[in-house]
Write a structure and sequence with these properties.
This is Haem-NO-binding. The protein is of the alpha+beta class. Helices cover about 55% and strands about 20% of the residues. A hairpin with a 3-residue loop joins strand 4 and strand 5. The longest helix is centred in the last third of the chain and has 17 residues.
Length: about 180
C-alpha cells in the first residue's frame, strides 16, 4: 500500500502556497515518519500511504477546513493543477473529457498502488467511474481523487462541471462511484 512521492510533494506545496503563514505549524503536527519523508521526497519513489498522504492530508484538513472532505478535495484540485502543466497541459487541453478519463486508470496507478479505476458509462456530457481498489479505503483519498478529476476536467474545458461521489469504499461499499456531468 503505497503512494508516489509526487502526491506528498503536492500536499506540501499546497500548504506552502495556500496557507503559508501556518506552514510551520502544519509541519509541527505531522508524524515524525511524514516529516522524515518531507526532508527529501523523490517524486517517483513509493512511500507508505499512511505517512505519504493520509497523515499530511488529515493534518491540513484539521487545521484549515471545517469540512475535512472539502480540504482533501481542494488539495486534489491543486495536485491536478500542478501535475497537468507544461506538455501535459497541452495534452489535456486537446483531449476530450472521455478520452482523458478513460486513461484515468493508468493515471491513478502512477500515484497510488494498488489502484483500479474503470470507466463504466460515458456520454457526451457525463461519465461514471468506479474505483474498485485503493491502497487503503480512506475517505480523504477518495476526495483528493475527486478534486483531481474535477480540476483535470476544468483544464480540459468542461463547463458546469459536477463531480459527485455516489458510493464509497471507505463507507463499506464495494466501490467508490464518481458520477460526473458537465454542460
Amino acid at each position: 500500500m503505497e503512494v508516489r512521492g509526487s502526491v506528498l510533494i503536492s500536499i506540501d506545496e499546497f500548504v506552502k502556497q495556500r496557507h503559508s503563514s501556518d506552514y510551520n505549524s502544519w509541519k509541527g503536527k505531522l508524524s515524525k515518519e511524514t516529516l522524515e519523508l518531507l526532508k527529501n521526497p523523490g517524486p517517483q519513489k513509493w512511500y507508505p500511504v499512511e505517512d505519504g498522504v493520509i497523515d499530511p492530508t488529515k493534518q491540513l484538513c484539521e487545521m484549515f477546513y471545517e469540512d475535512a472532505k472539502k480540504g482533501a478535495w481542494e488539495s486534489g484540485r491543486y495536485s491536478a493543477e500542478a501535475a497537468l502543466k507544461g506538455i501535459y497541459k497541452v495534452f489535456v487541453l486537446v483531449s476530450t473529457p472521455s478520452f482523458m478519463l478513460k486513461r484515468a486508470s493508468r493515471i491513478m496507478t502512477t500515484f497510488y498502488s494498488p489502484t483500479n479505476i474503470e470507466v463504466v458509462d460515458t456520454t457526451d456530457k457525463s461519465m461514471l467511474l468506479h474505483l474498485t481498489q485503493l491502497p487503503v479505503n480512506n475517505e480523504l483519498i477518495e476526495h483528493r481523487i475527486g478534486g483531481w478529476i474535477e480540476k483535470a476536467l476544468e483544464i480540459c474545458g468542461c463547463k458546469g462541471l459536477k463531480v459527485k461521489i455516489k458510493s464509497s469504499l471507505s463507507k463499506g461499499d464495494d466501490r467508490t462511484t464518481f458520477d460526473i456531468t458537465w454542460e
